[in-house]
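Mods, move this if it's the wrong board.
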Amino acid sequence: MTIQQRILAWIEEDRDELIKFLSAFVAIPSPNPPGDTRLAADFLLAQLRAKGVPVEIRSAKEHLPNVVGSFNGGRKGRHLVLNGHIDVFPAGQAETWSRDPWSGAIEDGKVHGRGVADMKCGTSASIWTYIYLHRLREELGGRLTLTCVSDEETGGTWGAKWLVENFPEEFRGDCMLNGEPSVPTMVRFGEKGTLRIVIEIDTPGAHAAYTHASPNAIRIASDLIRDLYELEGLPVVQEDSVRKAIEAGFGAIDDGIGAGASTILNKVTVSVGVIQGGVKINMLPGHCRLEVDIRLPVGMTHAFLLAEVERVVARYKQARLSPVWTHSCEPTVSSPDHEMVGILKKAVRDLGWKEPASSVSLGATDCKHWRQNGVPSYVYGCRPTNMAKPDEWVGVEEFLHVVRTHALAAAAYLSV
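Not the wrong board. Structure tokens:
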């Protein structure tokens, strides 16, 4: 049997075990915030040790453990890194869910629970790829590394970023494969950036009847917000190969994420997420605070966009831009023509599924930490069904497909 045939046979033999593994993983709460992933990491560590593969905990913060491992093949070759995260979004109010958000229930051909799509499905695919390829290590070249990290939902400072920056020889590799939700009809080679800013508006304030005595800070904020939305019309300049690849994937991203996704993929988007102002209904507010999330398309930079934000804020003498913003990141991109893109597409096609298009992600992933260090990084995963919403789920067959695709692609990359 070929390597590919053996991998597929193992996955079929382990079908029930794989599904139960994902269910059990989801049933261990790991919401971030608060971000304590120790129980989920302990589960992964025990499961991997039981399979006899190299694994350890590497962490800078006790409550944010990273489960990592690595092994060499039977000959020299390239270094592939598998990456997924353990932390997930908070579940929110339990009563908004149809079942316990941490049930991991296997019902109606689906696995249910918070974090199953984002991204315990993809992290499980990385784990089982690591397990299967360890059995084949003497027939493969190079090196395979597993990184199951904490802290992705809050920027990756103590997870992927910490590993890549502090242990570059161990964790950067020559290429990185990630299983974030992307829909099976897309391979993602880049992602939009994030600029998160705070704007403070201060006026003297007054009694609500004395509107002549002071400008209203909330009214100024309202006008400023209107002007911030002008940023969505800024022009975008991209390399032809990147632009053409993105445009070719418009149909796939609309099919996978919803109609209209393609219309914002290559433009700036503005979301005012928090407005805080006022003390009492009959007091004219003297302060208002805005927290704004701005997404940058591939090809745009923080420096360019920040200058545009400053231009808008400067129209209002009572407003000031905070010099500190959290979890902002530049857009990142890898070549859409990299060998891994072709390997993933072939693996999907050979499995009888529709060949995926190339695209970029609307949201951020830990890929940015590898791309910022010059490592080509690619995403292939499940659909983001109800990601960050109640009743999150992943189809069992889709989960198994992602496992097959990752295992076959990793084996192909390390077989050269």
